[in-house]
Design brief:
This protein is of the alpha+beta class. It has 2 domains: about 160 residues, Ribosomal Protein S5, domain 2 (2-Layer Sandwich), CATH 3.30.230.10; about 130 residues, GHMP kinase, C-terminal domain (Alpha-Beta Plaits), CATH 3.30.70.890. It is about 35% helix and about 25% strand. It contains 9 helices and 11 strands. The strands form 2 sheets. Strands 1, 2, 3, 4, 5, 6 and 7 form a 7-stranded mixed sheet that branches. The protein has a 4-stranded antiparallel sheet with strand order 9-10-8-11. The longest helix has 20 residues. It is globular and about 60 Å long.
Length: about 300
């Protein structure tokens, strides 16, 4: 079993008593649904496909004397507190230290802010202790706290967010531009997953087909096909997490010649995917932003991470 520090981590030791770690977010999901399988009757088989984005969470963990307890800043990062406590206990170390988190990922929007916090925390703790946690075990620990994105893995991956299990790596995409509109508010990931409607057998077969199409598109570098699957997933998600800007953004995407839409399936944003290598990219970007200004919600620009 490959340890997290080798497979998914970028931990860095600062001093003998300080460890630091970082993790990227993901702009929603290229695809999210459920697959056929033995756990189907129990509602298992849920999955998502990540779209890594250039927004980051960073964690700095400093060991303290036994008996001093664990402090976390900002204090509302209770999920990171829970993971740091669980990791220290599992690795046989006193639960004592200071954890400081900083992030450029907005919370409650569907960009994996909590998952990035947790992965950065794990990397910081394992760095200072110079210990390893198998990736499969870490995924289970994260999923015990909340449904989690696969941001511990590089590239585009299919991930079971309820079990914290890596399903497959699809590959890498070039850096893409996302013109996003936030309809406002925040979504609690835990609450959303509790109330999310079940997937029927035919839906699961449909998502299985879409995952196959997406895997082939990523492998071939076929960005139009990637955008087509992502747009269909966003459309299907309207029955579970409606976004009032979906139809208008789909029309804008078609008008400017974008690749497709990408949705934060358990969040508040939908974005238009553009390829910065396209000869008409600057015009596409300008027109997409101009047209999106007429919609209800704040406009944000994100750049995805390339290989």
């Amino acid at each position: 079993m490959t340890p997290i520090r080798q497979l998914v981590g970028h931990p860095r030791r600062g001093t003998s008593r300080v460890g630091v770690g970082t993790a990227h977010g993901t702009f929603g999901e290229l695809l999210q649904g459920a697959l056929p399988g033995p756990g189907e009757a129990d509602g298992e088989g849920r999955f998502l496909v990540t779209l890594p984005v250039a927004r980051w969470s960073s964690a700095r963990f400093e060991l303290q004397a036994p008996g001093t307890g664990l402090t976390v800043s900002p204090s509302h990062k209770t999920k990171a507190t829970a993971l740091a406590t669980a990791l220290l206990t599992e690795l046989g170390h006193p639960v004592a230290g200071s954890l400081v988190l900083t992030s450029t990922i907005p919370e409650g929007k569907g960009l994996a802010s909590s998952s990035a916090d947790l992965v950065a925390t794990a990397r910081a703790v394992t760095a200072v202790l110079e210990r390893s946690v198998p990736a499969r075990r870490l995924g289970a620990m994260l999923a015990a706290i909340e449904p989690t994105d696969g941001v511990m893995y590089p590239g585009v991956v299919a991930f079971d967010h309820r079990r914290g299990a890596h399903l497959r790596t699809l590959g890498h995409l070039p850096a893409l531009q996302v013109v996003a509109v936030d309809q406002g508010g925040q979504v609690d990931t835990v609450a959303f997953n509790r109330r999310c409607a079940a997937y029927g057998a035919s839906e699961r077969r449909h998502y299985e087909r879409l995952l196959g199409e997406l895997a082939r598109a990523v492998a071939a570098g076929d960005l139009a096909a990637v955008g087509a699957v992502s747009t269909e997933s966003a459309a299907l998600n309207q029955s579970r997490m409606p976004n009032r800007n979906f139809v208008a953004l789909r029309d804008i995407c078609r008008l400017v010649g974008g690749l497709g839409l990408v949705a934060c399936h358990s969040g508040t944003m939908i974005g238009i995917l553009l390829d910065p290598r396209h000869s008409g990219y600057r015009s596409q970007l300008s027109e997409a932003v101009h047209l999106a200004e007429g919609l209800s919600g704040a406009i944000h620009l994100y750049r995805t991470l390339a290989a």
